[in-house]
Design a protein that fits this description.
This protein has 15 helices and 39 strands. Helix content is 20%, strand content 29%. By secondary structure, the protein is of the alpha+beta class. Strands 11, 12, 13, 14, 15, 16, 17, 18, 19, 20 and 21 form an 11-stranded antiparallel β-sheet that branches. It comes from Drosophila madeirensis (Fruit fly).
């Protein structure tokens, strides 16, 4: 027994020793693997060369970005700066003055894709501002088998024989854009007679804000602030740390088709018909002030006599409190330093998008393949809410989008806006209209309206009024932005479309037809295929020409930057390979979307010219101004009403001359003859209703959406209507 006992004991010890030895061997193998170096990647010091067509401004550099670590992996903050080649030519005119070279070590085991760009570099903060970059969809490439015998590249051109220059303006990476707008001479004259003025806006940097008393003294006495002689140079100050802070001011007149350019020394003309847009790129907006210098010509000046300095004014950094607004600038006499006039200066601040960083891999901002057929775009899905027999097909719902996708739509138009708690909801109207009548004829209302039922316990009349509702004759109008998503999610619908063939459970089908879906849910591939593009229209109320808020809405309470950032972050993070197109009737919203990202195109919407009520903003209501704004800020194009093209057939050709595309929308697009005519004009997209029906059957609801509170007086009646709808469409009651 003892022998067997010790034998068993010895066997257990041997097993433990064997396990320990195996473990030691594994450790040795792992250590050997760590000691073995990874295979070396063959690299080459590659010479890059590019010809830039114009002289650079202060602190501008030509740089390279690409898909390898030495070129920054497409990161705008890690571009490789190039050196300007010293000219040794004795000739007065030579290309060496704009030739830039760099030698970069690149791997040769992969194809190297790269682009050239013009950047502003701040060496103190190591920040890069993208001024211009090559925006061709296909980047430049160095093949693994390619040698170094290559001619110098031309900035923006594919090769020496390419006549089309594809260069786009940059976007807000870490800098802030500030737009000052002087439209139609907003000067308030006091005792002087009005005269034609030229305005020059110059950024100024200082450690401390300008005190009010300092605004009353000449500029030479402002010791903390020093103006540069050129708008493109770094602005100097007493503190050496401020020598690197940059400010660029460019200007464009929306009356003509010129692009943004640097200001002349004596400013630009700001007459009654001029619409001057000042585009300022600022690195430190909290410490940046602005000086306005006004010039005018003498009454008996000669043709060769320059204008004289008429007056000056200042805008302090703390006056630009919000994302948009107006500032009253007191203009002082340049000689006596006494008040002369007041200038109502409108501004817009475009801050960078912090929660998502765009790279320089590709851009679709102005890309359109000429061989592509015009897009069929479903208006709000399968169209504005309409009756098809006994079925109610609701707009801006997952069901409507699926109907358009089944009809091979290229894109669907989606209206989005924010709720009170910051949720991006798909909905069109700015106002929720709640019916006050307790003894209403619901059968008649169902024929003209889409009735949405809300519970009395959560939304009664007192709550609606406390939310900012406005009481009218027979209803209470509540701004959509006053609702939270949880409140909207309480809605019940009285009518919906029948379940065709019962291939989908009725509960699931009804869920797809509920109003107020989230934009985030639309990006789920199991819901909508990736091949279906989204034309995302950002809703934001604005004033009409009667100086009232459009469509009975009210002044928005959201900050514009927060509003746009919330929508952009969802799209940029979840869109994937889906085609995206942004649009809006608001020119400032389009400007923000364009300057906050570099990936998706932006389209400015214009109203039907036959409508009696137009927008107050002339950048939208005047077609030429809209086209020039889209041109200077590099939008994809304009989305015009079909009546605009029918009245002005040459407008599409005019947009093509400005490198813009045209999209048309309108109820008359349901006619196939009208759509064919638009295609002959050269539009790239047509937005129309009931895209899934060739015969265009259906009756639109004249009164749109109407909300009802489920009170004791009407609860039984509403329940009967709902049960009857379920029995007809689903074959059972909802409570079963």
């Amino acid at each position: 027994m003892h022998r067997w006992f010790f034998a068993n004991e010895r066997e257990e010890c041997d097993e433990e020793v064997a396990k320990a030895r195996e473990k030691d061997k594994l450790v040795e193998v792992e250590e050997d693997r760590e000691l073995v170096a990874p295979p070396l990647v063959r690299t080459t010091e590659w010479p890059f060369c590019v010809l830039y067509p114009r002289p650079l401004q202060g602190n501008e550099y030509v740089a390279i970005t690409g898909n390898c670590e030495s070129l920054g992996d497409w990161d705008p903050q890690k571009v490789f700066l190039m050196d300007k080649k010293n000219c040794s030519c004795s000739e007065k005119i030579c290309n060496c003055q704009r030739r830039f070279e760099a030698s970069v070590i690149i791997p040769r085991n992969i194809d190297i894709h790269y682009r050239f760009c013009v950047v502003v570099h701040n060496p103190e903060t190591d920040e890069i501002y993208i001024r211009f970059w090559e925006s061709r969809l296909e980047s430049r490439v160095i093949r693994t088998c390619q040698n170094m015998l290559k001619t110098c590249d031309r900035f923006g051109h594919r090769d020496d024989f390419d006549t089309e220059c594809r260069v786009d303006r940059g976007w807000a990476t870490s800098e802030t854009y500030i737009h000052f707008m002087i439209f139609n001479a907003p000067f308030h004259w006091q005792q002087q007679s009005p005269r034609l003025l030229y305005v020059h806006i110059q950024p100024m940097f200082g450690k401390e804000p300008i005190c009010p008393d300092a605004l009353k003294v000449p500029a030479r006495m402002l010791k903390r602030l020093t103006l540069s002689s050129r708008p493109s140079e770094p602005l100097a100050a007493e503190d050496s740390s401020q020598n690197l802070r940059l400010g660029y001011t460019e200007v464009a007149n929306l009356r003509d088709s010129k692009v943004l350019r640097f200001q002349p020394y004596f400013g630009v003309c700001c007459g009654p018909e001029d619409m001057q847009l000042y585009h300022c790129s600022i690195g430190s907006p909290q410490e940046t002030h602005y000086r306005l210098d006004l010039y005018t010509f003498a009454h008996k000046s000669g043709s060769d006599e320059p204008p004289y300095h008429y007056g000056y004014g200042f805008v302090k950094a703390d006056q630009l409190m919000y994302s948009e607004g107006h500032v009253l600038v007191a203009i002082m006499c340049a000689s006596t330093h006494r008040p002369l006039i007041e200038l109502c200066l409108r501004y817009l601040i475009i801050r960078p998008l912090w929660n998502f960083k765009c790279d320089m891999r590709r851009t679709y901002e102005r890309y359109w393949r000429r061989s592509r057929l015009p897009m069929d775009i479903g208006h709000r899905g399968s169209g504005t809410t309409y009756y098809f027999g006994e079925n109610l097909v609701r707009e801006n719902t997952l069901y409507g989008f699926k109907q358009a996708a089944a009809a091979n739509a290229d894109m669907v138009e989606i209206d989005v806006q924010l709720t009170k708690d910051g949720q991006v909801v798909v909905y069109h109207d700015f106002v929720m209209k709640f019916l006050l009548k307790q003894s209403a004829n619901y059968e008649e209302l169902l024929n003209s309206s889409d009735l949405l039922v809300f519970p009395f316990e959560r939304l009664n009349r007192l709550v609606l009024l406390m939310m900012g509702g406005l009481r009218r004759t027979s209803r209470i109008d509540v701004p959509f932005e006053a609702f939270t998503y949880d409140q909207l999610n309480l809605v019940r619908v009285l009518q919906f479309a029948a379940n065709k063939g019962h291939e989908v459970p009725c509960d699931r089908m009804l869920h797809e037809q509920r109003p107020f879906p989230l934009l985030l849910d639309m990006f789920e591939e199991e819901e909508l295929p990736q091949s279906l593009g989204f034309n995302i229209e950002i809703k934001f109320p604005q004033l009409d020409n009667s100086r009232r808020w459009e469509k009975e809405s009210s002044k928005p309470s959201f900050d514009r930057n927060v509003y746009v950032d919330t929508i952009l972050e969802i799209v940029l993070q979840h869109a994937g390979n889906r085609r995206i197109l942004f649009s809006s009737f608001d020119a400032d919203i389009c400007t923000m979307v364009r300057l906050k990202q570099n990936l998706y195109p932006v389209v400015l919407l214009t109203e039907d010219p036959e409508f009696a009520v137009q927008y107050l903003d002339k950048r939208v209501s005047v077609l030429d101004h809209a086209a020039h704004l889209a041109h200077c800020l590099e939008f994809f194009g304009l989305a015009m009403h079909t009546n605009t093209v029918l009245q002005q057939p040459a407008i599409v050709t005019r947009l093509h001359q400005l490198q813009l595309e045209a999209i048309v929308w309108g109820s008359i697009n349901v006619d196939i003859l009208v759509r064919n005519k638009m295609k002959k004009h050269g539009v790239v997209g047509i937005i129309y209703d009931r895209l899934n029906q060739l015969d265009q059957l259906g009756m639109e609801l004249p009164d749109g959406n109407l909300c009802i509170i489920n009170e004791d007086s009407n609860r039984q009646k509403l329940k009967e209507i709902e049960e009857q709808e379920w029995r007809t469409k689903c074959g059972y009651n909802p409570e079963q």
